[in-house]
Amino acid sequence: MNILLIGATGKLGTAVHSALADRGHRILTVGRTAGDLRHDITDPDEITALYDAAHGAVGTLDAVVSAAGDVPYKPVAQMTPDDHLAAFRGKVLSQIELVRQGLTRVAERGSFTLITGVLGHDPIPLGSAASVANGAVDAFVRAAAVKIAPRRVNAVSPTLFTESVPDYGDFFPGVRPVDVADVAQAYVRSVEGSHTGRIFELS
Questions:
Q1: Any idea where the domains of the chain sit in the sequence?
Q2: Which CATH architecture describes the domain 2-202?
Q3: What does the pLDDT look like over 123-164, one tens digit per residue?
Q4: d(Cα 24, Cα 152) in Å, to the nearest integer?
């Protein structure tokens, strides 16, 4: 398959790239500052340019995979309207636009795999924006799946990565982490499987 991978150089994106490439897929990597293509998916015009560039590079895409989404972490009382807008643009609108614009760029039976997270249903202190964003992505996936068939859309919802425990473990007290390689396998399942409207939870 020809697969467009957004966020390919991050911790998760690197693992997803490896898992998909090991299975023989052709991966076109995307990042803001690194990758085969350099685009900021928080800007809808940049997403249009990204799809144009991807078509020029590999032709029709079989799958679009997102491993990128930024949200601010602050106490609720310190969150501002701009913080909430940043979370919406960084994780929700960006991924909605990947699907919306991708409907004419992805093969008829192609797929989209988005990133969400456990905080959508199991919040932590400082993570209200992430909880809202993840819940919105989950809802979008379920709703979009009804309308875009035979194309498919799913999301992967991980908890804290084992590899991130030294940096973020204190924010997730008592939470069992998951290896990023296991999260990457959920992406493989979404891309190669037949599910749609599914939230693959790893917690």
A1: 2-202
A2: 3-Layer(aba) Sandwich (3.40)
A3: 888 888 999 999 999 999 999 999 999 999 999 999 989 998
A4: 21
- Report the C-alpha gap between 70 and 60 in whole angstroms: 28
Chain mean pLDDT for the chain: 94
- For the CA atoms of the chain, what is the radius of gyration? 16
d(CA 94, CA 108): 22
Query: Measured over all CA atoms, what is the biggest interatomic distance in the chain, rounded to whole angstroms?
Result: 48
Alpha-carbon distance 46 to 50, whole Å?
6
Report helix, strand or coil for 8: coil
- Distance CA(80)–CA(66), nearest Å, equals 27
First-to-last alpha carbon distance for the chain, in angstroms, is 29
* CB-based contact 76:35 (threshold 8 Å): no
- What does pTM read for this prediction? 0.94
- Residue 75: how many CB atoms within 10 A of its CB? 9
User: Can you tell me the distance from the alpha carbon of 133 to that of 71, in angstroms, rounded to the nearest whole number?
Assistant: 8
Better-predicted residue by pLDDT, 152 or 68: 152
Q: Are 63 and 106 in contact (CB under 8 A)?
A: yes
In this structure, the strands spanning 2-6 and 26-31 are parallel
